[in-house]
Amino acid sequence: MSSPASPSLRPARYAGLDGLRALAVGLVVVYHLFPQWLLRSGFVGVDVFFVISGFLITSLLLREREVTGRIHLVVFWRRRARRLLPALAVMVTVCATWAWLVGGDVLVRLGWQVLGAATFSYNWLSVAGGSGYFSADTPELFRNLWSLAVEEQFYVLWPLLLPLILVLPRAWARAALALVLAAGSAVWMGVVASDGGDPTRAYFGTDTHAFGILLGVALAFVLPRLLIAPPAWLEGRVARAVGLTVGLATVVGLVGVAMLPAGDGIGTFPGVLLAASVLTAVAIVAGVAPRSWFGRAVDVAPLRWIGDRSYAIYLWHWPVLVLLVASAQTGPADATVPVWLGLLTLALTLAAAELSYRFVERPVRRRGFRGSLRELRARLAGTPRSRFGALATLAVALGVVSGTTAAIAAAPARSSGADVVAAGAEALRQASASPAVSPPLAPPTPRPSTSAADPGPVPAPTPSAVGGGQITAVGDSVMLASAPALLERYPGAQIDAKVSRSMYAAPGILRALAAAGQLRTYVVLALGTNGAIDTGSLDQVREIIGPQRTLVLVNAYAPRSWIPGVNRTISDYAAQHPGVVVADWSDAIAPHVGLLAGDHIHPGMAGGRIFAASVGDAIAAAEEAKARAQYLMALRAYRLAHPYLPEPH
């Protein structure tokens, strides 16, 4: 057993880890606050935190066992509670009270969110409730707490499992087991993600996202022992220079990984996340090596300041962003946030983190919960000035707790966007139960006579009226929300709309309708909200519907980074292919965003009428073009049949 003065016990702080924490929180904050910038996979900063946590917590437990011969579970959990709970409680109650004042969609499922925060089960409650981390729905106020839940579940379970791992006699065997478990977790994430759909289950799951923590665990089994008596080759100038080079390369690599496009398959889950975890493990080795130049380089004062406050920065940045966006009504917080609002969020986050660190986190960690309560009682019994401060603190605490209670009581079960989508689904259900009959169409335009005695009417461009019986519409949740208005304008229209559907689903749906003989004259597609559009899918659609039908492509309106690209693709494709027209929903709704739900995506009834009108305008333009072409053909035939008559006007 080592003594308290043993070298293995001296490192209270590993070099380089504060700088890595600063990098981790920086990646996440930029990803959320400035989504239009280049860090499209900046969420990998969470995986950096996971590796650091696995390394530090396991090192702490191993050191305690070496000194005392056992692991004091209650003491360990009490230390974790002191570290995590005070700042978390302050953030949750303050932001919940703020949300109550803002109202609207920021309150959706707030009671479940607070429960998840209080029980460190946020990730699993989100999965059970169907929340999507990467979806286009209104983001949850405390959505960032999913990662805190994963870490806390590790803090609870790992001290119980560690003695079983320590039965293995060699450190390398323990590390190998941790690596095998990490590999299993990564493979399991890939299996879950490959099922298709929203990758939230793969991302939020403790089982699927444990590989970063387990990599840190593997490091903790072998690295501290190597540092107790480092070999000569690890302490020379050459080793330090190599460590600096490798460490800086890992930092560049982490930023590069964060710049990769985020997908929803195994390339990202676990590919990108696993790459970030491995790079972090290498960076830890480079940072904690004896007299590491890299450790000193990344632990410069500004990065150490951020690293010390990284927990509070991570806690505050997302709720503050959601609340500011809701107050400014600029759209969902995970969309293209205006730069000014991102900068304001950053300033408020840093201020809140500093206050939390100075007046909440450090005092409780130093005095403990009981000591903090004794300090409060002493202030209440002290001088008038200290009594005033203590009473003000109690008043604020009572206010935010009351505000949190009121917010939970006022919280709706679902967002305004979900409400209009549900109304659209109900309209479709009722329409399928009692199909409407399309109004009679206008009589066909009379053909010009070829008789010399009776030349008949002079041909004129006469567009035909289009009824719902001529329309097949396939779309996503925007079309689903607009279904009541579409059916109002086009009774009997065939509408197939579903949440989270993209253009990649269109060929399969239309192929099935064509095989059943159910495709109608006008095929309307509104599938641009949930991701980029591939022209290959559009080519397949045109091939399926054939040249005798008209394809109407509805462009998209949503505060999402890919929307401009989607609309350019649609416009260019229609310009290059006859028989394809654009329904300009984007320009039509832009002056009327107040008719959209709180997510700034889904229309209510009034907005749905604008959607239906944009579709109607596109169909009318297509009919006008058809009538013009028929007119020119008829006029040519008229002239050939009646060359002696004057030119018609």
What's this, in brief?
The chain is elongated. Mean pLDDT is 88; it is low at 1-11 and 438-453. The chain has a 5-stranded parallel beta sheet with strand order 2-1-3-4-5, with helices on both faces.
Number of domains: 2
What distance separates the N and C termini? 108 Å
Q: Please work out how many helical segments DSSP would assign.
A: 23
What would the principal axes of the Cα set say about the shape? elongated
Task: Characterize the largest beta sheet: strand count, sense, and whether it forms a barrel.
Answer: 5 strands, parallel
- Low confidence ranges: 1-11, 438-453
Helix content: 55-70%
**Which sequence of strands runs across the widest sheet?**
2-1-3-4-5
What report would you give on this structure?
The chain is mainly alpha-helical and 649 residues long. It has 2 domains: 19-319 and 332-413, no CATH class; 417-641, 3-Layer(aba) Sandwich (Rossmann fold), CATH 3.40.50. It is built from 23 helices and 5 strands. It has helices at residues 17-33, 45-68, 73-102, 110-119, 122-128, 145-165, 171-193, 200-204, 211-228, 237-258, 267-288, 293-298, 301-308, 310-328, 339-380, 384-410, 416-433, 477-489, 506-515, 535-545, 563-576, 585-589, 605-641; strands at residues 471-475, 494-497, 522-526, 550-554, 580-583. The protein has a 5-stranded parallel beta sheet, with helices on both faces. Helix 21 (563-576) links the parallel strand 4 (550-554) and strand 5 (580-583). Helix 1 (17-33) packs parallel to helix 14 and helix 15 (339-380) packs across helix 16 (384-410). Mean pLDDT is 88; it is low at 1-11 and 438-453.
